[in-house]
Amino acid sequence: MVNEVFKTVEEKMRASVNVLKDQLASIRTGRASPALVEHIKADYAGTPMPLIQLANISAPEAGLLVISPWDRNSINSIEKAILKSDLGLNPSTDGNVIRIRIPPLSEERRQELTKVVHKRIEERKIIVRNLRHEAMAEMKNLEKNKEISQDDSKRAQEQLQKLTDRYIIEVEKIGKDKETELMES
Predict the structure, then answer these.
(1) Is the pTM value of this prediction over 0.85?
(2) Helix (H, G, I), strand (E, B), or coil: what is residue 108?
(3) How big, in percent rounded to 5, are the helix, strand and coil portions of the chain?
(4) Rounded to an integer, what is the distance from CA 6 to the centroid of its chain?
(5) Cα gap 148→146, rounded to integer Å
(6) CA within 20 to 30 Å of 141's CA: 69, 112, 115, 171, which one?
(7) Residue ranges of the domains in the chain?
(8) CATH class of the domain defined by 2-25+106-184
């Protein structure tokens, strides 16, 4: 019983950390990265779809993204989606591909992006803590229903706290790494 609770909560915490990694990958630094735009949704045949499903996205050089749509008819909707995004990018099209120059970040923009990183980190820490809270409630319920002893419950709660602390530290490290990347680029 306790092992199932641990397995479930750890999977959810790991998934939460992976979501954070994906979110932070989409926050731009001074370098071009396909992850910057691949999750932007563009209208394709009346359905919003992520760019990664509509085109090949590459970064042939540090300050340039090239988006090659598989269907040329989607170029306009991809361009509009990029312009609507909060990334502040200006795509240019030659009819076949979309090129996006990634301008160097101003100090003001770096500070704004750092705030976004902090916000995402706090959101993830709250999610991890809520997962801990749910698992603790399950442990107490198991104890209340006499499925585990009070000592086992206490030990499990201590282990759960250690697991939570480990994931909180990982979230903070990922955030610090992204901050450093933003400030260096």
Answers:
(1) no
(2) helix
(3) 65, 15, 20
(4) 24
(5) 5
(6) 171
(7) 2-25+106-184, 34-101
(8) mainly alpha
Q: What is the pLDDT of residues 5-26, one digit of tens each?
A: 889 999 999 999 999 988 888 7
Say if 2-25+106-184 and 34-101 have the same CATH topology: no
- Token pair in block for residue 173: 């490290």
What does the pLDDT look like over 89-130, one tens digit per residue?
889 998 889 999 887 778 887 888 888 899 999 999 999 999
Of 130, 138, 131, the C-alpha closest to 5 is 138
Determine the straight-line distance between the first and last CA of the chain, rounded to whole angstroms. 48
In angstroms, rounded to a whole number, what is the distance separating the alpha carbons of residues 154 and 150? 6
Confidence of residue 30 (pLDDT cuts 50, 70, 90): low
Identify the residue whose tokens are 């709250």: 126
Instruction: Specify which residues 64 forms β-bridges with.
Output: 61, 101
Report the alpha-carbon distance of residue 2 to residue 168 in Å, rounded.
Answer: 21
Non-local (6+) Cβ contacts of 7 within 8 A are: none
Contact in structure between 131 and 93 (CB atoms under 8 Å): no
Q: Strand pairing partners for 49?
A: 42
